[in-house]
Q: What sequence folds into this?
């Protein structure tokens, strides 16, 4: 490690050799890929609420003092680290962690591409690849869950709702812990895993909810395995079965009539489409109507169905939603002069827990176990320690 001690005595200090932390994830720590779909080649790492220790792949250590920053950029397959005084050295891997305080924060701000800074607890690891810097947050699962709950559900909800969300997030972790194993991490920070934007800021509601449900997960009552704990924004009054959406039937992901979400923000939506455009779309699927009868286009869903029928053709509602980017498959069609009016209900795939419905249940005084058992059928609450994965 190249280093100029005279210039950097206030910013970075070399310490003794120490091997990088290597911890089992089961019940303890997990590895989350940050900014996973972004090709980050340049970033800054800053210390807040206490100094950080930076450990290189060759075992050397240095300290980033509280309030100071170092810069990392990819060059020739190496991570070059520098500070305000110039280059420090080049490495294949760097690990940043608070020295002596659980409050110490690792702030990461991608520069290329430019992304807003995010705060992370525990350890942040940078490793060099051919065309990007991989960024991993190695973190206790409960701290990670708190961050996910805040990112996925937002602020201002009841304690019982947050407890239910914490359990759902924890269940997802232990049901998908091997999802990215071949890539060197367990989960990423994006939608297809769980949205995660770093440290949870709500220490008065979300953190207590996570701690109160520590170790609790949802298992099916047949195999005692973690369920596929799916959720969505709003079901529009009726959840959907997993079989209808993904083709795989699960005993706990079945339709549920939900009266709690129907007055929420995403309960209803509308879209107006020119009639000529709608007919042109249908004609691509074989639609013919010599009489040009608008009644043939009408379609009503009072309960969720799988197929939209227009004249003598049938199109899966899932395909219509995808083709037109509708908010859900729970929609009805009517013709108004030269336009087609699409009246929709809900937002998302509709399978599993309806977040806005669960929020309302929490406001009405339902407990977290009542919320969970309302949306997921044939399940039990269990301890992660009882798993045999």
A:
């Amino acid at each position: 490690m190249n280093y100029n001690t005279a210039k950097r005595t206030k910013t970075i200090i070399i310490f003794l050799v120490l091997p990088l932390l290597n911890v089992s994830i089961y019940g303890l720590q997990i590895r989350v890929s940050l900014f996973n779909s972004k090709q980050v080649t340049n970033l800054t790492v800053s210390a807040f609420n206490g100094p950080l220790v930076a450990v290189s792949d060759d075992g050397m250590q240095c300290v980033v003092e509280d309030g100071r920053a170092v810069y990392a950029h990819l060059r020739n397959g190496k991570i070059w680290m520098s500070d305000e005084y110039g280059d420090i050295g080049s490495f294949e891997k760097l690990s940043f962690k608070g020295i002596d305080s659980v409050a110490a924060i690792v702030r990461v701000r991608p520069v290329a591409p430019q992304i807003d800074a995010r705060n992370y607890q525990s350890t942040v690891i940078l490793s060099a690849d051919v065309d990007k810097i991989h960024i991993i947050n190695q973190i206790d699962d409960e701290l990670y869950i708190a961050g996910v709950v805040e990112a996925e559900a937002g602020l201002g909800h009841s304690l019982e709702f947050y407890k239910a969300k914490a359990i759902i997030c924890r269940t997802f972790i232990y049901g998908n812990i091997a999802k990215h194993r071949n890539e060197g991490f367990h989960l990423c920070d994006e939608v297809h895993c769980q949205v995660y934007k770093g440290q949870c800021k709500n220490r008065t509601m979300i953190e207590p909810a996570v701690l109160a449900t520590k170790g609790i997960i949802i298992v099916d009552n047949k195999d005692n395995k973690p369920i596929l704990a799916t959720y969505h924004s709003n079901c529009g009054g009726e959840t959907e079965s997993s079989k209808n959406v993904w083709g795989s039937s699960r005993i706990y992901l079945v339709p549920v009539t939900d009266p709690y979400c129907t007055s929420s923000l995403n309960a209803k939506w509308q879209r107006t489409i020119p009639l000529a455009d709608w007919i042109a779309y249908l004609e691509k699927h074989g639609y013919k109507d010599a009489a040009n009868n608008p009644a043939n286009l009408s379609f009503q869903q009072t309960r969720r169905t799988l197929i939209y029928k227009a004249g003598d053709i049938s199109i899966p509602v899932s395909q219509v939603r995808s083709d037109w980017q509708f908010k859900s498959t729970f929609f009805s069609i009517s013709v108004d002069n030269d336009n087609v009016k699409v009246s929709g209900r809900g937002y998302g795939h509709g399978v599993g827990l309806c977040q806005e419905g669960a929020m309302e249940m929490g406001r009405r005084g339902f407990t977290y176990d009542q919320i969970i058992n309302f949306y997921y059928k044939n399940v039990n609450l269990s301890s992660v320690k009882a798993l045999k994965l």
